[in-house]
Write a structure and sequence with these properties.
This protein is α+β, with helices and mostly antiparallel strands. The protein has 14 helices and five strands. The protein has a five-stranded antiparallel sheet with strand order 2-1-5-4-3. About 30% of the residues are buried. The model has no long low-confidence stretch (mean pLDDT about 85).
């Protein structure tokens, strides 16, 4: 029996359907609606599929649909681009599930050099599960000075960004807006799970978080998806205080992700970030 991670197509369709307001779609909200959102027959009509067929998908009697049908349903439910991509991934059969994950969580020497040379940028290399495979000293000092600098080198203790966000109070207290941060972590994890339905380590991570954090479990059940690749975050750092940083992600050739945080040039935020670069020990000793 092959284990497939989180491909609950039926419940995803139902949640997305319940999210849509009938008025948005120009439908009269006439009569009493027992449930929020659109009715099944309305979605079926908007998507141009039979009500019976749509109901079978939602009740998980049919596990897959053609991409054309899924795209019509995505339009009917007004899904975002990320949500549509996710629906296509969970609603079509997995191609070659036997294929192992392409990378072995190793960071190439040239990527290590890049990390080291990004001076006033906090940078880390993550795999898609958000395990930290390597970081530069600024990223380490920004996010996890309470962990050893060599923590990413040890697979069994490798820090995981999402786990730390929910389970490590040091990291949790860094975010000025923890609720938004944790929500974007979960929507990213849900988005990525569509690509990696056969990854036992991903399933293990999700299982562990669900058991150890009620907050994670509640967010995970909402099945919201989005791929968070750039934006800005406000930090409340124990050493340098309030700090607003922009972040971006770049895909590396080996399948890993380079994540970097940077401040607006010549801003007080940049000054604060540079202050973190000062050797903290020498400051304390004088």
């Amino acid at each position: 029996m092959e284990e497939i991670v989180n491909t609950d197509l039926g419940s995803y369709l139902r949640q997305m359907r319940e999210r849509v307001r009938p008025e948005q779609m120009g439908l009269q909200a006439r009569g009493s609606r027992r449930v929020p959102g659109l009715r099944r027959e309305e979605v079926a009509a908007l998507a141009g599929v039979s009500q019976t067929y749509y109901t079978r998908l939602e009740q998980a009697q049919t596990a897959h649909a053609s991409p054309q049908v899924l795209l019509s349903i995505a339009r009917a439910l007004q899904l975002s681009a990320d949500e549509r991509d996710y629906l296509l991934k969970i609603g079509t059969p997995v191609q070659n599930p036997q294929q192992p994950a392409p990378h072995d969580d190793q960071v190439s020497p040239s990527t290590r050099m890049l990390l080291g040379s990004l001076g006033n940028v906090a940078a880390a290399v993550l795999n898609y599960r958000c395990d930290i495979l390597g970081w530069n000293s600024l990223y380490h000092r920004l996010f996890a000075p309470h962990l050893g600098f060599d923590a990413p080198e040890r697979p069994e203790q490798r820090p995981n960004v999402i786990k730390m966000n929910f389970l490590d109070d040091n990291v949790r207290s860094l975010y000025a807006d923890w609720a938004t941060e944790s929500e974007s972590n979960v929507t990213y994890l849900r988005f990525i799970s569509g690509d990696h339905r056969h990854d036992p380590q991903l399933a293990e991570l999700i299982g562990e978080l669900t058991i150890q954090s009620e907050e994670f479990a509640a967010l995970w059940c909402r099945q919201r998806v989005s791929n968070c690749i750039e934006g800005s975050k406000l930090f409340d750092h124990p050493v340098v205080g309030e700090l607003e940083l922009m972040y971006q992600s770049a895909d590396l050739q080996d399948g890993n992700i380079l994540k970097f945080y940077h401040a607006e040039p010549d801003s007080p935020h940049e000054a604060a970030l540079q202050l973190l670069m000062v050797d903290l020990d020498s400051v304390h000793h004088h």
